[in-house]
Every structure is written in structure tokens, then in C-alpha cells.
Write a structure and sequence with these properties.
The chain is built from 5 helices and 5 strands; from the N terminus they run H-H-H-H-H-E-E-E-E-E. The chain is rod-shaped and about 85 Å long.
Length: 151
């Protein structure tokens, strides 16, 4: 095993980078990007200075992998979940404030209402009849909270 390490050349690091990027492509979620970058950097450094020992190469790889991983983490953490359309995938939240006609009779303060092509469960403090104009005032999970419009 030591003989392998003593014979390490720059192309060994390129092969390691290819293997790591293949692992990244299989779903490492960015975890291996720092190691890929470090392997490529060690390949370049060992090509420029071929007299580096294997201990120096491995130490350099370890330090660079840590530094590159931290750099990638800081660089990509800015791509957080903030968006200018926070309700894009929350259809119930998109309906808050809008008015609709109730399409089914309510019993016990619960019922259903057709909005577009979707039949929504609705809740109200009072029973409302079919055709009543209602306003969506909130949502709880996938249930719309409604009140009679105009109140």
C-alpha cells in the first residue's frame, strides 16, 4: 500500500476528482464538491511540483478539502429558501382574501367548495347555504377558513 502512495502522480488526483464528481452526481447534495475541487487543486500543484511526497500531497488534499468545503458552504448558503413568491406552492394561502360562491351546503360548520378545478374542504363558525358569497380568511392544513362575504 505504501508503494502505491509513493508512486502517486497528478493523474491519480484527477481520477479521484472524477470518482468524487460521479459520487456527487449520484446524489451527495453538494457534500463532495469541496473534495472534488481539492483533488483538482492537488493535481495541479503536483503537476507543477512533481517532487512532493505522498504525505505532503495527502496533507495538502486534507487541508484544501476542508477549506474548499467551507468556502462552498458559505458561497451556497446564500441560496436560502427566501423568495419573492413565498406562497407559490401553498395553494390554500393563495386563496386568502378572495371571495367565492359556496357550492355545497354546510353542516356542523364544515363543508366543501369548488374553486376552479379543486374541491376544497371549508370551515366556518356558522352553517352557510349553497350560493352564499364567502371570503377565505385563512387556512389550516388544507382546509379553508371562511366567513360570509361583506362582514
Amino acid at each position: 500500500m505504501i508503494a502505491f502512495f509513493e508512486a502517486m502522480q497528478f493523474w491519480h488526483w484527477i481520477i479521484l476528482a472524477i470518482v468524487l464528481i460521479a459520487g456527487e452526481a449520484l446524489g451527495a447534495a453538494g457534500f463532495l464538491l469541496g473534495a472534488v475541487m481539492a483533488a483538482l487543486e492537488v493535481a495541479l500543484i503536483s503537476y507543477i511540483w512533481p517532487d512532493l511526497t505522498w504525505q505532503q500531497q495527502l496533507s495538502l488534499f486534507a487541508v484544501l478539502a476542508l477549506l474548499c468545503s467551507v468556502w462552498f458552504w458559505y458561497r451556497f448558503k446564500s441560496f436560502s429558501q427566501t423568495t419573492d413568491l413565498p406562497k407559490l406552492n401553498n395553494r390554500a394561502a393563495q386563496l386568502i382574501g378572495r371571495e367565492f360562491a359556496l357550492t355545497q351546503e354546510m353542516t356542523g360548520g364544515q363543508g366543501k367548495m369548488q374553486v376552479g378545478d379543486t374541491l376544497w374542504r371549508v370551515e366556518s363558525e356558522t352553517n352557510l347555504s349553497i350560493g352564499t358569497q364567502v371570503k377565505v380568511i385563512g387556512s389550516r392544513e388544507m382546509v379553508l377558513l371562511i366567513v360570509k362575504a361583506g362582514l
